[in-house]
Structure formats: C-alpha cells, structure tokens
Amino acid sequence: MPYAGDLTPQQAFDLLTSDDRAVLVDVRTDAEWRYVGIPDPAAVDGRAALIEWITYPSGRPNPQFLVQLAETGLEPGDARPVVFLCRSGARSIAAAEAATAAGFGPSYNVLEGFEGDVGADGHRGHTGWKAAGLPWRNL
C-alpha cells in the first residue's frame, strides 16, 4: 500500500498547523539535526519527533524505527496524519512507506525536505523547509 502522498513544505506546515492530531517526524540523522537545524517543534505545538531512519555514524537502517515511532504516541490504525521530513525528500519516502505498511498514518512525504537538493553552486538550502521560510531552529 503506498503512502498517502507528497506535500510541499508549505502544504506540510499547513497540515500540521490546521490538524492538531498531525505529527511531524524528522528522519534525518543526529548529526544533521545538530549541524543544520530542525523544524521548530513549538510551531507545531510540540507535535514533532526526531527519529533517525538511517543511524549515524553507522549509516545502517534504524532497526528500532517503528518502535520509536510508536513511542511518540502514534498507534497503528489511529488515522493520525504523520508528516515525514528528511534532508531532500528521499529517506522520508522510505519512512512514509514503512510507516504505512505498519498501519501508521496517513503518512506523507515532504518534497524537497529540510534543505533540498544540491543547487548549481554545489550547496543545499535553495529549496525545502528552511528556504520556504518555515519555522526552524538550531538543536
């Protein structure tokens, strides 16, 4: 069963601020959270979680991902929207698919992620959550 779909960063923020059951899950690594920043949990009334999809520094899939997702208070079948975010929108697709298969969601992927793909200048940050001017902070 496919995940519920892709959202632009603005659409994701709009869903999170209009539906008080929706949860944001940032699936980047601890290093990314610390060095690049995170979406501001206060902007979504604290309904945000940091759960690595790929663990740092091993680069291996997080075997506890679904357990940690459940520890946020989400339950399979509870129909709470879950919005997954990563750096550019690739790992969050995999996380949304896994969550959907486990009964969580509807699960969404944020297109462009937190800081988007590498631009012509060789750097990220031209697209994504931060570039859209959505609330974020340093960890």
Keywords:
alpha/beta, globular, Rhodanese-like_dom_sf
What does this structure look like?
The protein is an alpha/beta fold and 139 residues long. The chain has one domain (5-134): Oxidized Rhodanese, domain 1, CATH 3.40.250. Helices cover 24% and strands 16% of the residues. The protein has four helices and seven strands, in the order βαβαββαβαββ. It has helices spanning 9-18, 30-36, 65-70, 91-101, and strands spanning 5-7, 23-26, 38-39, 48-50, 82-85, 107-110, 136-137. The chain has a five-stranded parallel β-sheet. β5, α4 and β6 (107-110) form a beta-alpha-beta unit. The longest helix has 11 residues, at 91-101. It is globular and about 45 Å long. The mean pLDDT is 96.
* Name of the top-level CATH class: Alpha Beta
Report the order of strands and helices: EHEHEEHEHEE
- Kindly state the percentage of residues in helix: 10-25%
Spatial strand sequence of the major β-sheet: 1-6-5-2-4
CATH topology: Oxidized Rhodanese, domain 1
- Specify Rg, calculated over alpha carbons: 14 Å
Question: Multimeric state of these chains?
Answer: single chain
CATH architecture: 3-Layer(aba) Sandwich
Q: How large is the share of residues in beta strands?
A: 15-25%
Overall SS class: alpha/beta
Tell me, rounded to a whole number, the average pLDDT.
96
What is the end-to-end distance? 34 Å
Per DSSP E runs of 2 or more residues, the count of β-strands stands at 7
> What does the largest sheet look like?
5 strands, parallel
